[in-house]
Design goal:
EC number: 1.1.1.267
InterPro entries: DXP_reductoisomerase, DXP_reductoisomerase_C, DXP_reductoisomerase_N, DXPR_C, DXPR_C_sf, NAD(P)-bd_dom_sf
CATH superfamily of the largest domain: NAD(P)-binding Rossmann-like Domain
Radius of gyration: 20 Å
Order of helices and strands: EHEHEHEHEHEHEHEHHHHEEEHHHHHH
Structural class: alpha/beta
Bound molecules: nicotinamide-adenine-dinucleotide, magnesium ion
Number of strands: 11
Function: Catalyzes the NADPH-dependent rearrangement and reduction of 1-deoxy-D-xylulose-5-phosphate (DXP) to 2-C-methyl-D-erythritol 4-phosphate (MEP).
Catalytic activity: 2-C-methyl-D-erythritol 4-phosphate + NADP(+) = 1-deoxy-D-xylulose 5-phosphate + NADPH + H(+)
Strand order of the largest sheet: 4-3-2-1-5-6-7
Largest sheet: 7 strands, parallel
CATH architecture of the largest domain: 3-Layer(aba) Sandwich
Pathway: Isoprenoid biosynthesis; isopentenyl diphosphate biosynthesis via DXP pathway; isopentenyl diphosphate from 1-deoxy-D-xylulose 5-phosphate: step 1/6
Number of domains: 3
């Protein structure tokens, strides 16, 4: 029986991972974790009977301990707790469904402990791809992408010679504001930005889809995951999210993965790779679908994408600054402290004022993150 631990089991990816586990019935969940959602953690604990649960917030950890008195489950807390569940001797795979840069350290420790990583957390490769990828190779562990685009590329590359890649084509829905210009985005509200046309996801990534920052982060991840230069990565808008991404090969062949928008497919593919299993749910009906349309991304309006390319080209600590500035800006937007377009100004300002550290260590990455937060707090 495969054994897994989940960082962020109460979120969108975390709960869908548990649905996949439940449908299949042959994976043991050894560990759950969350920031502090005690109600859901208690339900998950009673259903999946893990041996340990990491609750980041200490008060919430105390409360969960009290509620689960009748069960034999260890409760751990803080960063040490996250690292502990990431490195449990009995697990095979760590699912990184946690949001934010908080996921980096536990993921690194898990790789050092020889765990395969089912990777959803974007920040890991965006900020520390230069450390993670060589480490994974050295440890002989697999980085199995959970994001639908990277899973699609991973599936398209199955059995292919990576040297034959000409181009990676990452598809984008364009988000809820596709077709709008800057003037029309001046006064958009949090509710408008949270209305994603195709996917139901956590709040942070949903805002990132509206700004196209999400697509920028995915470009950076693709660079690391598949070892391709940035000029070989192209973003193609395909509004209905039917084509999840494509690879063009040297001979001109393009291989794509298509399907209904359902994250359980890439999650299940990562958990059972290379095995394919039945997955309940809708299937594509090409008669109903009739057409699949494509557009060029509007990079004059949605600056998330060009700023991400700029950060990735600069490299070193710049992607960390791009990511940290965005993380803080999105949080401010969600709390209605800034306007939608301010997100771009905050990211540009942070990038302009950052002195790049080439090849940063984890400590330098975390320090660049902190310095970015401090700059933003002092100015916005
Ligand atoms: P979410 O907000 O729904 O869930 C986040 C999870 O992280 C929750 O379980 C939360 O408790 C946990 N968490 C947050 N801070 C924590 C902390 N300090 N300690 C422990 N746990 C903490 O987010 P999501 O949409 O599931 O996304 C998770 C990650 O996966 C993100 O990096 C996102 O970019 C990526 N991702 C998500 C999707 C999607 O469809 N939702 C698709 C691709 C990639
Ligand atoms: Mg995606």
């Amino acid at each position: 029986m495969k054994k897994i631990a989940i960082l962020g089991s109460t979120g969108s990816i975390g709960t869908q991972t548990l649905e996949v586990v439940e449908n299949n019935g042959d994976i043991q969940v050894e560990a759950l974790s969350a920031n502090g959602n005690v109600d859901l953690l208690e339900k998950q604990a009673r259903k999946f009977k893990p041996s340990v649960i990491a609750v980041f917030r200490e008060d919430a950890a105390k409360e969960l301990k009290e509620r689960l008195k009748d069960m034999n489950i260890r409760i751990v807390t803080g960063m040490d707790g996250l690292i502990e569940i990431a490195t449990l001797p009995e697990t095979d795979i760590l699912v990184t469904a946690i949001v934010g840069m908080i996921g980096i350290l536990p993921t690194i420790e898990a790789i050092k402990a020889g765990k395969d990583i089912a990777l959803a957390n974007k920040e890991t490769l965006v900020t520390a791809g230069h450390i993670i990828m060589p480490l994974a190779e050295r440890m002989g562990v697999q980085i199995l992408p959970v994001d639908s685009e990277h899973s699609a590329i991973f599936q398209a590359l199955h059995g292919e010679d990576r040297g034959g890649i000409e181009k990676i084509l990452i598809t984008a829905s364009g988000g809820p504001f596709r077709g709008k210009n800057r003037a029309e985005l001046e006064n958009v509200q949090v509710e408008d930005a949270l209305k994603h046309p195709n996917w139901s996801m956590g709040q942070k990534i949903t805002i990132d889809s509206a700004t196209l920052v999400n697509k920028g982060l995915e470009v950076m991840e693709a660079k690391w995951l598949f070892g391709v230069d940035l000029d070989r990565i192209q973003v193609v808008v395909q509004p209905k999210s039917i084509i999840h991404s494509m690879v063009e090969f040297k001979d001109g062949a393009v291989i794509a993965q298509l399907g209904t928008p359902d994250m359980k497919l890439p999650i299940q593919y990562a958990l059972y790779y290379p095995e394919r299993r039945y997955l309940p749910g809708d299937r594509l009906d090409f008669w109903k679908l009739k057409e699949i349309t494509f557009e060029k991304p509007d990079t004059d309006t949605f600056l998330g994408l060009p700023l991400a390319f700029q950060a990735a080209r600069t490299g070193g600590s710049m992607p960390t600054v791009f990511n940290a500035a965005n993380e803080r800006a999105v949080s401010k937007f969600l709390h209605r402290k800034i306007r939608f377009l301010d997100i771009y100004d905050i990211i540009s300002d942070a990038m302009e004022h950052h002195k790049v550290i080439p090849n940063p260590s984890i400590e330098e990455i975390l320090a660049a993150e902190q310095a970015t937060y401090e700059r933003i707090e002092s100015r916005w």
